[in-house]
Amino acid sequence: MSHPMLTVKQAGPLALIQDAGRFGVGHLGVTQGGAADWIAFRWANWLLGNPLESAALEIVMGGNLTLVANSDVRLALAGADLAATLDDQPLAPNASFMMQAGQTLVFRQPKKGLRAYLAFPGGLDAPTVLGSQACTAREHIGGLHEDGKPLKTGDQLTWKGSSATPRQLPQGTQIPLPDAEDTVLDMVLGSQAAHFAGRSLFDAFNQPWTVDQRADRMGIRLTGKALNSRLDGIVSEGIPLGAVQIPPDGQPIILMNDRQTIGGYPRLGALTPIACARLAQCLPGTKVRLQPISATHAQAAYRKQLLRWK
Amino acid sequence: MKLRLETAAMDALTVRLFDAIDETNMAWIMAADEALRRAFDHALIDLIPSYTTLLVHYDCQKLTFAQATTLVRSALRNLAPADSQQGQLHEIPVWYDESVGPELPIVAKRAGLSVEALIERHCSHDYCVFALGFAPGYGFMGLVDEAIATPRLKTPRRRVAAGSVGIADRQTAIYPLLSPGGWNILGRTAVPLFEHAKRGEPLLRPGDKVRFKAISQSEFEAAGGDTTPLEERS
């Protein structure tokens, strides 16, 4: 009998192996990478009893990504509802499930949210580069073939553990996904905010922004009434996750996991990691609002989120 | 040098030491890099030095915002510039040729120089590595002689080959891996910058110096260089 595995029968538009990200290497010019919705990613691992940062599959859109199992395996799915089916039976989101040898798992299209996370017993098996299995296409780092590329037809996924210790979501636990109506994104104001006109600061927090089509793992553009900074550009400097960068056209770009490590556009501040996870689930056209929060309050909310997995 | 501490994100601070790019900044930046790494120790997630600043990303499960702020200030209280001899000097062999460096004649013409004189000018300065960024192992270097400084291409190329050596304004750099890019490409090196970075040991580090050396096509090929011409601008 061959090694237990899932074979990619048909590749969707974008499915990437991701873990928590690549840290401590920003000074090499290497990006952070990692699961864009780090909360759903951790829930997926939690549901299988895995270490929370185990490598999983980040599935964007679905697009008929089709996986076939060669032996029985327990998997877990969290995050977006991509109308997934197991042998044509709909799968409940945010739960673990048994996939039997010969069964087919298909991810069709987003019903709610954008990114689903599929966790495997003990985490996916893939080469570790600079301390992480995260896949970053632009850098040609990570992935099954160490070229940073997304899954392709014929790829074989194997995992590290022999069995899972499945768990169910605690009663009443909700994994929030953005509503089409009004998603609020907390943002810590940065010091460069002082260089924005008062009117622009008002507009930043008092209008609905629309998530644009121009959105990927590097950055997500928001469109709305333009914001104006008195700074033309700045000397390039290190950019944190969630940085709200304002290019000359005044339309913000939120810098995400695969952002360049340094850059020279003025910044209004940075979304909190929790806000980044929510934004990562927003389909183009979703309306979002920015809301200022202090670094101290943001940290408290972040620690509270981490405690949910203790 | 005047220390300013700025909020960058929930768990990140920008330490600003200077306002403008200058080679003399680097001794201070590297001294601050070392002091911050030591002070933050296991509470440090990432530290990204650049031309005038350092971005400190700390673990907010270990330090509060106030503690991190205090720690930066105490770590940098008696900062003195690092020994300027500390950075390494790298000699980078480059095959300057129009096939792999399509802007060679354009940059030369703009500067009113022959191609040979341009190459000589590009090789005549020990460039300071200001920052790594854009791609793994990509070092932003300068400052290029004012006479040969050239603005970025109006339309960036979709594919710039690994090893391409380029100029943008008064900066120069080497592309470690195939990527899009808008710099004026003058030639190509066989030095494997990306492979070094991928092992966590970048060849070029901020504060290092780089001297380019013109080599022939046969020397370039002997070093394992790829002579595939750079594709046209797209």
Write a brief structural summary.
The complex is a heterodimer of chains A (310) and B (234). With 310 residues, chain A is of the alpha+beta class. In chain A, 13% of the residues lie in helices and 30% in strands.
Task: List how many beta strands of chain A DSSP finds.
Answer: 20
Strand content of chain A: 25-35%
Give the number of domains of chain B. Answer: 2
Helix content percent band of chain B: 10-25%
Instruction: Determine the mean pLDDT of chain B.
Output: 94
Number of helical elements of chain B = 6
Q: Structural class of chain A, please?
A: alpha+beta
Largest sheet of chain B: 7 strands, mixed, barrel
Strand and helix map with partners:
The complex is a heterodimer of chains A (310) and B (234).
Chain A: E1 6-10, E2 14-18, H1 38-48, E3 56-60, E4 65-69, E5 73-81, E6 85-86, E7 89-90, E8 95-99, E9 104-107, E10 112-119, E11 156-157, E12 183-189, H2 198-205, E13 209-215, E14 219-223, E15 237-238, E16 243-245, E17 253-255, E18 262-263, E19 267-271, H3 273-279, E20 287-292, H4 295-307
Parallel strand pairs in A: 12-20
Antiparallel strand pairs in A: 1-4, 1-11, 2-3, 3-10, 4-9, 5-8, 5-10, 6-7, 6-9, 12-19, 13-14, 13-20, 14-17, 15-18, 16-17, 16-19
Chain B: E1 4-9, E2 12-16, H1 25-40, E3 44-49, E4 53-58, H2 65-75, E5 89-96, H3 104-111, H4 115-122, E6 127-132, E7 139-142, E8 157-160, E9 164-168, E10 171-174, E11 179-181, E12 184-188, H5 193-198, E13 209-214, H6 217-222
Parallel strand pairs in B: 5-13
Antiparallel strand pairs in B: 1-2, 2-4, 3-4, 5-12, 6-7, 6-13, 7-10, 8-11, 9-10, 9-12
Helix pairs in contact in B: 1-2, 3-4
